[in-house]
Structure formats: C-alpha cells, structure tokens
Amino acid sequence: MHDATRSYPSAKGGHLPNHDAGFKKIFSQPEAIEKLIRGFVSHDWVEKIDFSTLRLLPTEKISNRLDKRFHDIVWRVNVAGSELLVCLMMEFQSTPNRYMPQRMMTYVGLLMEHLRETKQMIDTDKGKLFPPILPFVLYSGQQPWNYSCEVADLIYEMDPALSRFSPRMAFFLLQMKDLKEEDLAEMSPENFVAALFRVEHARTAGVILERAIELHALVRQAPTAETLLPAIGAWFDGVFRTTLTSRGVDAARIPRFENLEGEKTMLAETLGNILDERHEKGLQEGEARGIAKGREEGEARGIAKGREEGLRLGALSSLLKLVEMKFGVIEDADKDRLSQLNHEQITHALSRILTATTFEEIL
C-alpha cells in the first residue's frame, strides 16, 4: 500500500499497557499477520507467499537487548520456494522516532547474528546466506511520521565518495492514522485487521461499540478465534477505556473485558447507565433553572411553566450530549432542529439514542 519511504497511518498515542500487550498478542496469530500483509503491503511478491508455512521465531534473546518499548514479533514464511523473515515492530508512542532506522538496523543485525549462531541460514550455491528480511514498523501515534525510514539519511555526508560505504537499510512504515476510513470500510468484511483499525479510528463511544461488534462477528469466523478473541479483548479494553475516561467517565465504573463474548449487552448496559445518569443530572439542572425563572416572574403559572420548560431544557441538554457522544460533533443546523423539539419528542429521541445508527434515526 506504500513504499518504505512513505508515511502511513497512526492512531491515538498514549495507549494503556493492556492495549500494547493486546496488539502484540493479536499479531502473534498467523491469521492476523496474514491479513495485515495481504491488506496493507502492495507488492507482487505478496501473492507468492505460502501463508500456511507461517511460524513464529523466538525473539527473547534479541528483544531483551533492546529498549523495552520495542514490541517485536518475527515471523518466518515461505515465499516462492525460499524463506522470508517479517520483523514486525510496533511503536505505541504518541510521537514518531527519528532514529527508528538505526534501531531497526540494530535489531536486524542482532537477528542475523541469532540466525547464524543457531544455524538457520539458507543453503545456496554461494554458500550459506541469510534469508530476506522485511522490517515492518506499525506506528499508532497521532503525530504524522515525517522522518525518513532510511538509515543512510541519519548519517552526515562529508564526501560523496564516502557515502557508498555508509550502511543502507529502510523499513516499511504503516501509520494507522492515515488509513482512509472508506478503504478500511471496504476491506473490513474480508479482513478483520482492517475492522480492528476502524475501531482504532473511532472517536465516540457509540461508534466504538458498533465497530467492535462488527469486529467481533468477523473474528468469531476465524479459524484461530479461540486465541484471537482474548487478545482482541485486551486490546479493546484499552481503546474503550481511553475514550470514555477522556470524556470524564470514572475509570472504576468501566468494566474490563477479557474477551468480547458479551460485549453487546455489557457495553450497552455500561453506556446506558452512564447516559441515564447524565440525563437525570440534566433534568435536575434544567428544572432548577426553570423554577428560578418562574419565581422571577412571581406567578404560580410562571413556576409551573418554568418547571415544564426546565424539564424540556434538561432533557434537551442530555440529548445534545448523548448525540455528540454517539456521533461526534454535530452541525449547528442539527442542533437547531433538536432545540425545536418538545419534551415528548425529546424523550422519544433519548429512547432511540443507543440503537440509532444515524442522526436521522433518533428523530
């Protein structure tokens, strides 16, 4: 989908630890790495990969010598009768790392040393050689990756004649943030990794819930569903909790999900409880404002009318908050439409907010 020197998508930074661990567990599954490569690496040789030969290469001895933030996975797979190593590095930082090419070069060097020491070389008529290696960086930060993916660009060029002796190695960069929503939506029915990235892109609790349900349905059909579901549950917990806590919800009130088996009812119940409380608070605040207004008028009828209007305003305040929580920021024209609703119509809209998939469905 892009070359090594081109930047791609990234999602939110500042992920929780369970999010990071979940991602590593997910891409430690053969079906996940197959979907990742098929969906996001656009090269002819991808069609020659025999994904049935995928097998994980132990990396403890390599990764223990590197930065603990370096989440690494190495897959070995046959390509056109030979072997390829896919080194997947996951950067869960909020900002890009200018020196990633050097870090990746160090990692690849340690990997090659490990292959030589453990006699995992390829026999050829030129002797034992290293298998081809694809350095792959999956970056999830919000800030665009504007640095080069080539290690040679980190070396000061004193004399062009010396440049040919400088090390050269680039990595394939996938920035989740830059993946286009329409492309992911088109890919999702056939690629649960694309569906997973769509959840990463979601910014409201309602959209996260809907996309998570779609993702869950896709993963349940996967041959490795039994091991994928707990991994995705750990990852999803990070996404969902981060979004709700950023909107002022007490983290202690958000359940943790070891898997997504009960996600539809559990998440709907969680959201419903939170939204009901906000609704009630809005009603109380609106009623208080209405009574105060009625008292200012000094008439019993004014107080009654003020209470009625206060209830409407309180319900409207709740509805506006819930609509933005579900669909994101809404246009002024749509706010005006909601403001014209009477109390009964607002109550009807509130009853539809959790199940509605579009703004129009709540009206």
Question: What does this protein look like?
Answer:
It is elongated and about 90 Å long. The protein has 363 residues and is an alpha/beta fold. The protein has a 5-stranded mixed beta sheet, covered by helices on one side. A two-stranded antiparallel sheet has the order 4-5. 32% of the residues are buried. It folds into 2 domains: 17-184, no CATH class; 275-362, no CATH class. The protein has 13 helices and 7 strands. The longest helix is centred in the last third of the chain and has 35 residues, at 263-297. It starts with 16 loop residues before the first helix and ends in an 11-residue tail after the last helix.
Characteristics of this structure?
single chain; 363 residues; alpha/beta; 2 domains; five-stranded mixed β-sheet; two-stranded antiparallel ribbon; 13 helices; 50% helix; disordered N terminus
Global Rg: 26 Å
Low-pLDDT residue intervals, each spanning 5 or more residues: 1-16
Oligomer: single chain
**Mean pLDDT value:** 77
Overall tally of structural domains: 2
Secondary-structure map:
Layout: H1 17-26, H2 30-40, E1 49-56, H3 60-63, E2 71-79, E3 82-91, H4 100-117, E4 122-124, E5 127-129, E6 133-139, H5 160-163, E7 172-175, H6 181-187, H7 192-201, H8 205-220, H9 225-246, H10 263-297, H11 300-327, H12 332-339, H13 343-352
Parallel strand pairs: 3-6, 6-7
Antiparallel strand pairs: 1-2, 2-3, 4-5
Helix pairs in contact: 1-9, 6-7, 7-8, 8-9, 8-10, 10-11, 11-13
